[in-house]
Specification:
Blueprint lengths: L1 E9 H7 L2 H14 L6 E5 L10 H6 L4 E6 L2 H10 L4 E7 L15
Antiparallel strand pairs: 1-3, 1-4, 2-3
Length: 108
């Protein structure tokens, strides 16, 4: 099982109001320079929110939701400090109630 950290907000906020494209481009560039593997993804309508243990988190977030998911806790913390109106947390997957969040993903 892998621990994933997330930053959650409304899809509109993350994809239209905030310039995440710039953040992602800069992060990709940095990772390439450091020869580091990408460890973050933008997910619209994240399936992990359907897990019973995350019902309270889902209730706090306007729908449709979007999330930045990462295996790097520091990156999510950094994004949280940069953005307002977001919820952060973590989950482990795959589990009985949470499928692998990257199973059907294209890279952000």
């Amino acid at each position: 099982m892998q621990t994933y950290y997330y930053l959650l907000a409304s899809q509109h906020f993350l994809t239209e109001e905030e310039p995440l494209d710039e953040v992602f481009k800069e992060r990709y560039r940095y990772y390439q320079e450091q020869e580091k593997e990408v460890d973050f993804w933008l997910v619209t309508q994240p399936a992990f929110l359907e897990a019973p243990e995350l019902a309270e988190v889902k209730a706090k977030c306007p729908q449709p939701a979007a999330a930045v998911i990462s295996t790097n806790e520091q990156f999510i913390t950094w994004l949280k400090l940069r953005l307002e109106f977001v919820v952060t947390g973590e989950f482990s997957a795959p589990s009985q109630s949470i499928p692998d969040p990257l199973a059907s993903l294209a890279v952000a």
